[in-house]
Amino acid sequence: MPECVFCQLAREPSRVGHRIADSEHALALLDLRPLRRGHSLVLPKRHVTDLSEISPEAFGALMSLVREVSGLLRRRLGTTGENLFVASGPGSEQSVFHLHVHVIPRLPDDDLRWNDWWESKATPADPAELELLARSLRG
Predict the structure, then answer these.
(1) In 48, 104, 107, 139, which residue has its Cα 20 to 30 A from 74's Cα atom?
(2) Helix then strand then coil, % of the chain, to nearest 5
(3) Does 33 reside within a domain?
(4) Based on the structure, what is the number of domains in the chain?
C-alpha cells in the first residue's frame, strides 16, 4: 500500500513549497484546490486517519496551529473570519484518510453562502425528540 501523501509532506515540511506554518506536531499548507484565496489545510504530522484516532494532546496541538493559521490569514490577507471544516470517517465523505482541518478564510461579502446552503438542508427538530436523544447520548 502506498504511503499517505500527507505523511510524506509532514516528514519533510521544509521541502513543501506551499507550507505556511508548522509546529512540532502539526503542519499547515495551502490547499491545492482552494475555495477561497488562502484556503489552508492543517494536519497532524503523525498519521491518524480520523478524529477517533487522535489523542487529546495531539488534537490540542492541531487546533493550536489552526488558531495560528487563522490569525495569519486575517493579518496577511485582511480576512475577517474563517470556516473550519473536518471530514472524519467514511460517513463524512472524507477523501484523504489522514485527518486534516480546512481553514477557509472569509469576508462578509464573499460568495460562499454557507448559511444559504445550511438553511436549504436543515429542518426544525422536535424538542421532545431532542430531549430523548440528549438523554440517550448522555447515557
Answers:
(1) 48
(2) 40, 20, 40
(3) yes
(4) 1
15-39 confidence digits (pLDDT tens): 777 999 999 999 999 999 999 999 9
Nearest Cα neighbor of 83 from 39, 51, 19 is 39
pLDDT tens by residue, 80-103 = 999 999 999 999 999 999 999 999
Contact 41, 33 (CB under 8 A): no
Residue 72 to residue 93: CA distance in whole angstroms:
28
Between the two ends of the chain, the Cα-to-Cα distance in Å is 40
Q: Provide the CATH number for the domain around residue 84.
A: 3.30.428.10
pTM above 0.85, yes or no: yes
Which runs of E-coded beta strand occur in 23-116? Answer: 26-30, 40-44, 81-85, 101-106
Rounded to whole angstroms, the Cα distance separating 99 from 95 reads 10
